[in-house]
Amino acid sequence: QVRLVESGGGLVQAGGSLRLSCAASGRTFSMNVMGWFRQAPGKGREFVAAINWSGEDTSYADSVKGRFTISRDNAKNTMYLQMNSLKPEDTAVYYCNTNNPLPHLWGQGTQVTVSS
Fold first, then answer.
1. How far apart are alpha carbons 58 and 73 in whole angstroms?
2. 3-state SS class at 45
3. CB contact burial 73-106 (16+ within 10 A = b; e otherwise)
4. How many Å apart are CA 62 and CA 16, to the nearest integer?
5. 26, pLDDT greater than 90
6. CA angle 34, 37, 40 (to 5 degrees)
7. For 32-66, what is each residue's pLDDT tens digit?
8. Across the chain, what does the average pLDDT equal?
């Protein structure tokens, strides 16, 4: 059974950077299109970025395009989200899942807080 664990969040000033990691257990990781999602206080969960199994195809929400970069290392069963030029509106709990999210894969997420 696949399990996903997010890490790398923290408190950063506006304009700063963070790198999130999503570590997966289970041999199906490399076969899936994976995604990052986030949920801000009082709001629903939203799509942030996705990456296909080879890493060659990526997609981003308009709000993060040009600032965030998604990548993956299938050998390490790990996906990353490099976040640059962070804004206070990026404050949220960040989660990873398959691009079509599976309910049982939602983890606890990692908190990202961007101060102005």
1. 14
2. strand
3. eeeebbbbbebeebeeebbbbbbbbbbeeeeebe
4. 19
5. no
6. 175
7. 899 999 999 999 999 999 999 999 999 999 999 99
8. 94
